[in-house]
Amino acid sequence: MNNIDFLDKTLEVTIDRPLGSKHPKHGFIYPVNYGYVPNTISGDGEELDCYILGIYEPIETFKGKCIAIIHRLNDNDDKLIIVHENKSFSNNEIQVLTEFQEQYFQSEIIRSSNYLEFSKNIPELSVTNLENSLNFYKIAGFKVEYDRPENKFAFISLGEIQFMLQEIANNDKWDIAPLSYPFGNGINFQLEVENLDEIYNNFKNSNYKITFDIAENWYRQDNKLLGNKEFLIQDPDGYLLRFSEDLGKKEV
Q1: The domain over range 124-251 is classified in CATH as 2.40.50.870
Q2: Whole-structure pTM over 0.85, yes or no?
């Protein structure tokens, strides 16, 4: 069975290193319960290991849901993340809670294909025509995570960038004053991407007007300069988007 097949499955776990116990070789203390799934084989030939999150006392066994896999890139020993059925942990929370051991390895967190981690700040943009707006954002590589067609609403993402789009309705409680083009005047959204040139060319080839062409800009932060390669474009309602690619740092 591939380790990915364990995602979203309910598993019985045997705890062999309970919370508060000491690692027999390295001597660190386990701040979470740690165990294995009986009758499985991991890449290292041993049974598949698990971190149990959300339980704050030592236990001997646990039945819970696998919400993520820590896939080690420099070690053949993946770890399952097991929690109560109704619990959820973000990738950042998983990293913090398992850092006591995972800090010694390079890894990535694998989630199920339907997993969506919401940002802490998600702008909702009022738009005049949802279909036109979606056509624009898809050119940049955004995908629709989910929508509510009856409300003419869509939640879109590009990597860790997230927007909500809501077509304007006459009874929209969020509109506290009349809107006029360009919407969002006075704000621009900086969107950090890794494929700036590709996005730029996609817009150009689709005959969208570039507001400010690609340029390299350096912004001072104390005694360092932070570099960005960026261009600005307005979406169909005039929201100003600053697509940006990191150029690193240099001395002032």
Answers
A1: no
A2: no
